[in-house]
Amino acid sequence: MKQFLNFIDGDFVATGKTFDKRAPATNQVIGQVHEAGQAEVDAAVAAGHAALKGEWGRMSVVRRAELLHAVADEINRRFDEFLAAELADTGKPHALASHIDIPRGAANFKIFADIVKNVPTESFQMTTPDGGTAISYALRSPLGVVGVICPWNLPLLLMTWKVGPALACGNTVIVKPSEETPATATLLGEVMNAVGIPKGVYQVLHGFGPGSAGEFITRHPGVNGITFTGETRTGEAIMAAAAKGVRPVSFELGGKNAGIVFADADFDKAVAGITRSVFENCGQVCLGTERVYVQRPIFDRFVAALKAKAEALKIGGPDTPGVGLGPLISAEHKAKVLSYYAKARAQGATVVTGGGEPSLQGLLAEGHFVQPTIWTGLPESSTVIREEIFGPCCHIAPFDTEEEAIALANATDYGLATTVWTQDLGTAHRMAAAIEVGLCWINSWFLRDLRTAFGGAKASGIGREGGVHSLEFYTELRNVMVKL
Ligand SMILES: NC(=O)c1ccc[n+]([C@@H]2O[C@H](COP(=O)([O-])OP(=O)(O)OC[C@H]3O[C@@H](n4cnc5c(N)ncnc54)[C@H](O)[C@@H]3O)[C@@H](O)[C@H]2O)c1
Ligand SMILES: O=C/C=C/C=C(\O)C(=O)O
After folding, report:
1. Which of 19, 148, 149 to mutate to test the pocket of ligand 1 (most atoms within 8 A of CB)?
2. Residue ranges of domains in the chain, CATH in brackets
3. What are the catalytic residues (predicted)?
4. Which of 128, 185, 194, 480 is most buried by its number of CB atoms within 10 A?
């Protein structure tokens, strides 16, 4: 049985207190995860600070960048191992993990290694009140030991999206992967040792949130900042923990994203794009669409087209040939999604397709699979339109005017992402300016330029990461003024 160990100060550490890791596609136990306790957290924090005072803290930016490139290259050299680990942990389709999760898991190190080498700092020259001159310049220094709390939907990608900039800026990190997906974060420890990242720089502690490693990390006074991706209510708990000692947080949280399709859109591209944004990764993408609004002239045609796309998705495990829809991450999450399916029916939805569980054969019959589902006919106050479900489902409603589409899209506490489909430039830019989100895609979805700001507005997050924006969280900025 595979053992998922903690990675502390360069060593893999068993604790003997373990919990099962089950494969989402078959519900078979595939490993034992060693839960870290307060003692392991204390040891990791001490090791992280020791690394900051040692070789890592003295290392040049150029050398740090070289090592991060080497980390990316080693992930790519061990691509098949990372892919197998991610597929076992998540059950997602092979094509998805091999084209998105693992490549981005490596690319996240390269982009920030290059940014920190080339990012300018600011300087000002002023005439002082006595008629002299003063020059100011800015210095950046690492935040310190950073807690990195990760979700289970894109485990490697979302973890290195934070570890990349954190290390590039000279910090050390203590990663707490989701209890659902321990594998790739643990494997990355082997890579760190192999390329020569000093011990204590990258550490991994397994466990849960409250009363476990997650909470112990966020409450530890030696953790100088916390970057977290996960549910909004979890963010509230972590923010409360971080308040003691006034430690900075960077949050990428939940969403209830709108997809808006105008009658003038390229119909086939809009259907393909909305299909991806609703059903990719079995709907377990924070940026995904769960509310679709279609301009009335094409509403019926669009619903029929999306229905056909949903029903054409092949449901299966990572290696099912042509699979388009994998399992949900866990039995608990499957029960949550099915509870929303039941609520939609109870509240009078028209179930265009899906609404239940597929019938699968063999081991897959034990997996956490649900049907891709489309609803229409519900009022905007309905539960499945108000609450994040995080499954392969959406509600489609018609709209008539731009103003109505903007009002519908903004009627949520969340503000993460939206995808707008139109061929009218004016419509596109007016929508982008009016919708209260951190990320607006026009005639596209989940298209990523890693130099850009990434994050959510309102209840979807605090701060922006990506490009130079990451430096605002992962460094302390000092202004130096020199009187000449
Ligand atoms: N905005 C984004 O970029 C983004 C990306 C991916 C997922 N998400 C969101 O994440 C959610 C799904 O992921 P999830 O179920 O893993 O989220 P979650 O909030 O349940 O858990 C995320 C992580 O937080 C840990 N955790 C839970 N409670 C904690 C606590 N009190 N203290 C410290 N750590 C704690 C968990 O162990 C896990 O590692 C969805 O809401 C999704 O929208 C957002
Ligand atoms: O499920 C959420 C996906 C987040 C994606 C990123 O953070 C990214 O592409 O960098």
Report:
1. 149
2. 1-252+459-481 (3.40.605.10), 255-440 (3.40.309.10)
3. 252
4. 185
